[in-house]
Amino acid sequence: MTKHQQILTFIEDLAIGSKVSVRFIAKELDVSEGTAYRAIKEAEAKGFVRSIPKVGTIRIEGVKERQIEDLTLREVSQIAEGVVICGFAHLDRSPNKFVIAAMELNTMVRYLEEGALCIVGNRRDAQIVALNHQTSLLITGGFEPDEEVVALARNNELVIIQSPYDTFAVTSMINRALYDRLIQKELILVEDIMVKDVSYLTADATVDDWRKLSQNTDHSRFPVVDEEMNLVGIVTAVDVAGAEVKTPIKEVMNSNPFLVGRDDPVTHISRIMVWEGWEIAVVADQGKLIGIISLQDVIEAYQQVQKQPQFGETVDNLVLSGFRFVDDAEHLTIEGEITNAMSDDYGSASCGVIVTVMNMAGYIGLRKKYRLNAITENFTLYQLQPIAVGTEIKVTARLLLVAKKHCNIEVEVTANNAMVAKGLMTARIGDKKLVSETVH
C-alpha cells in the first residue's frame, strides 16, 4: 500500500467527528505536509471529510448508497433554508422517513424510529421524545431549541435544523423537492448503480489466485489492477480455461476491457453492452478502479425506473428496441423490422425513423472499431425510397475517414437485397476512453 493509500485508510478509520489537519496527519504517519494535504483533499472529494467554516476539517459519515429519491439532511436544510444548530458531522445522512409532530405524544411515539427526521414546532416535549428515539429534528417557525434539547442531540449524535417557515410550508417544500428530484433524475448514471465493493486481482496474480477468488465470491469475472489500483485488464472463466494454475494472469487476461466513467448515462452504456456483447463494464476514475456494473445491474436499474410513472423510454430506445446486431467482420451491421410505430401517414417508414437508425448504426460502428465517442455534426440523406411496414431492413455503416477530430461514415439501408436509403454522417470525435490511455 502506498503512503497516499495509507493516509486515506487512516482517515477513513477515524471516528466520526474527529478533526483532521495536515499537521496531525503528517505527524501521525510520518509523511510530508504536502503528501498529507493531497490525501486530505482526495478524502474530501470521496466524502470522508468536510471543511466547515470556523470549525475546520472533520471526519464525516460518508454518503451511503441512496435510492434516487432520497435527500440528505444537508439537502433538507438547504431546501427549508434552515440553520444547522448541531450535528454538522452527520448532515450526509439520509432520513429513512419523515414524521410530522402534529399529534399527541403517545400517538407520535408509534411513528418515531432511529434514522428518521421529525418536523416539529415549538413543542419541547415532542422534541425530547424524538431525540430519545434517535430521531433528528427539523424545528419550524424559527423557534430555537433550549440548551437541554441541544445537549441531548449532541449526546445522541443527532442533527437539529432550524427553519424560519411554518410546518406546512416546510413540508410542502420538501415534497416539491422530492418530486423535482424524481423528474430531474430520469437519466440514471453509472455512479447510481455501480458496485463499489469490487473483488479484484493484482497484476502479479496467477490462475490459481483466480480460482480461489472465484470459489470465495461465486463470481467468475474480475478486474486486474496494478499496485496503484490502475486498471490493466479483466479476466473471466473463458480466459483461464485450460490454463495451468501457475500461469500469470497477465498472460490470459483481456487487456482491453469495456471501461466507463461514473458520469456515463446507463441507457448509453447498456446499449453499447448489448451491441458489442459486453457482460460487464469496469468503472474507472482517472484510470483507477472504483466500481463495476453488469447487465444484471442495468436490468435492475431499468426496473427501478419503470416504477416511476413519469418515466418513459426515449425516442431512440423505442426505435432501436427491435433491432439486433449482425455478425459482420468488415462493417457494422444491424437489422430489424419496420413496425407500425415507425410509419408515417402513408404507411411507409418515417424519414425521421430511418435517419435515427442510420445515425445510430454509424455511431455504434465507430465505437466498436475504434472505441471512440462522437457527436453527429451533419447527416445528409442522399436517397430514400418508401419502405413498407413489416419490411425487414439491414443497416450497414462503413467508416470512410477517421481523423484526429472528425470522421465520415457512409450508411446504407437495404431491403430484400436492394438499397432503399443511403446517407453520409459527419461526426466530431470526442476524447478516447481511458482504456486506450491506461491499458496499452
From TrEMBL:
Keyword Magnesium: no
Keywords: CBS domain
InterPro entries for the chain: CBS_dom, CBS_dom_sf, Diverse_CBS-Domain, DRTGG, HotDog_dom_sf, Ser_kin/Pase_Hpr-like_N_sf, WH-like_DNA-bd_sf, WH_DNA-bd_sf
Domain CBS: start-end pairs: 194-251, 253-310
Keyword Ligase: no
Coiled coil: none
A Pfam family matched in the record: CBS
Superkingdom, natural source: Bacteria
Name of the protein described by the UniProt record: Predicted transcriptional regulator containing CBS domains
Source organism (scientific name): Desulfosporosinus lacus DSM 15449
